[in-house]
């Protein structure tokens, strides 16, 4: 009976599509969409989506050969599950009418109601509302996928699917609303998050740490990457897609998008080189794995700052993020915490470094949205606000994720059996193998 429940739920959701077809037109008298902005956001949405398969290759190449398919599948399934969740109620929870500054009204865009016609999101009047919804969906897809590196090689697939649904509803969507909705509590506080350092990377990083602690370590923690070539391919796809992630968050084909494009590639390049040089100092050879991890850390760190800081300061952000994340990776390795692919040191810490340094280097001349300049320019308010938000978001994401892990575990055990872990998740969870 348990096996049929998921299909019955899916059928019920299909029935909802018949009951709520959402075919009513929403019209604005003076709405004029810009074809250039619309084309760029369509392109950016596709670029952000390709980051998830990129992440699948990035993570898949790092795990042992018997877990490559399962690790990649954990990323792929996010594209399916999170899309369904987003269309039904997720977009409403993130961007619907404000409820207390922490969540959106689930009725606002239920089943994408009100997105047909020439209606636009208030802050982005030059693109259709449905395009804004689809662009934001891609962020909701990749965030839970980022967490998977922390519990790779030891989680039951069915339980994982339940967890990411709960994570989306109770962690990601409230943070997206609080940060990016004009009435959100963090937005009204003055927090600047250009493309998701707080909403995406900090939430995923803290959830990853919670998961690594909750699931405890693997039986065998020897690390033999299956395919370094997959890691390189994944990094290339991530870097490529990140231009949609960051430059697309400008909301149109404009100078802010161009500048975010520039700061993104600059920070990543700086971080990749810094990671290599730190490894050399430690007596290691310059590795492809190190270069790829460093590049991704730079991309993570510049995400909250991309459209708010200058290109030289993007170099600084990439450098600092690589140095700190590399150190945290080393320190983590001295503990009993089995964060398999170092998601917290790279994404969580990288996101926090980026958030703090946004409060240091953001400037009004780069983006008029910046009301209070960063600490580097002698002003303290933005830095103070970001520091408060950092602690608040960290607590919420970490404790909330621990609670959701426990709830999931009670409904469906999270950890695979020891024999399944030894056999490998590709075979035990999916009956497939390389």
Question: Could you tell me the radius of gyration in angstroms?
Answer: 21 Å
Q: What is the ordering of alpha helices and beta strands?
A: HHHEEHHHHHHHHHHHH
CATH architecture, by name, is Orthogonal Bundle
Shape: globular
Give the N-terminus to C-terminus distance in angstroms: 32 Å
Helix content: 55-70%
| Largest sheet report | 2 strands, antiparallel
Q: With helices defined by DSSP (H or I, 4 residues minimum), what is the helix count?
A: 15
Q: Low-confidence parts lasting 5 or more residues at pLDDT below 50?
A: none
Label the structural class: mainly alpha
What's the CATH H-level superfamily name? Ammonium transporter AmtB like domains
Query: What's the total number of strands?
Result: 2
Beta-strand proportion:
under 5%
Class in CATH? Mainly Alpha
Q: Which topology does CATH recognise?
A: Ammonium transporter fold
Kindly report the spatial arrangement of strands forming the biggest sheet: 1-2
**Average pLDDT figure:** 96
Subcellular location: Cell membrane; Membrane
Organism: Sphingobacterium detergens
Transmembrane segments: 45-64, 76-96, 116-137, 157-175, 195-215, 227-245, 257-278, 290-308, 314-331, 343-363, 383-405
Domain Ammonium transporter AmtB-like: 39-432
